[in-house]
Design a protein that fits this description.
By secondary structure, this protein is α/β, with parallel strands linked by helices. It contains 6 helices and 14 strands. The chain has a single domain, classed as Class I glutamine amidotransferase (GATase) domain (Rossmann fold), CATH 3.40.50. A hairpin with a 2-residue loop joins strand 13 and strand 14.
Length: 236
Amino acid sequence: MKIEILFPEFCNIYGDYGNIIYLKKCLPEAEFIETSLNEEPQFIKGDVDLVYMGSMTEKVQEKIIKKLMPYTETIKEQIDLEKAFLLTGNSFEIFGRYIENEDKSQIEGLGIIDIYSKREMFNRYNSIFLGEFEGIELVGFKDQFAHQYGNNSDIFFSKAIRGAGLNRNSKLEGIKIKNFIGTSILGPLLPLNPLFTKYYLHNILKVENAEIAYEKDTMEAYEKRLAEYKDMKRKE
């Protein structure tokens, strides 16, 4: 098992690297590769099992689009071949058609997924998130300056029960195309959601007999947070 973390020196502004720390505990035999912005990504050679990227600043988004643009067709091919991509926070925005600034100027995206993003730099969106994926309840947070638009009704990641989906008027959160997952959910996602992590290890990474790390403690924390979120939902 080989896992590549893209540009960790920039893509960790909401503690997203916690997902990798947790994966290292769950997959102690796996090889983890950290690729900096001035290095060639390993996944283009086709021998990486999971590509991970976390949140970044808006200026860094533009740099990473330029970095990945030459590999667009390779990324499309690897998605078709069911390569696992896990993109959290605002990282999956760069895979859309474009990102629109408040002055209506647009930054061309990779064009791999049929959505676009609109920035609202003076209207930050903050919310807890309660959702559902394949019968698994998800918990987490959202903290973002941009929202996504487009039809993800056939390719959404999770259904929002509390909080927004792609945007404030949507209840369909994120993108899932085969084993490509892009989600705005922060937290970090994996240690906050041990049941989802177990699903991810077994059904997407195909790791036989995989066990989640610190299962007792993570499940206790998850169940407590889940109960709190549901109680808040009832009181709305």
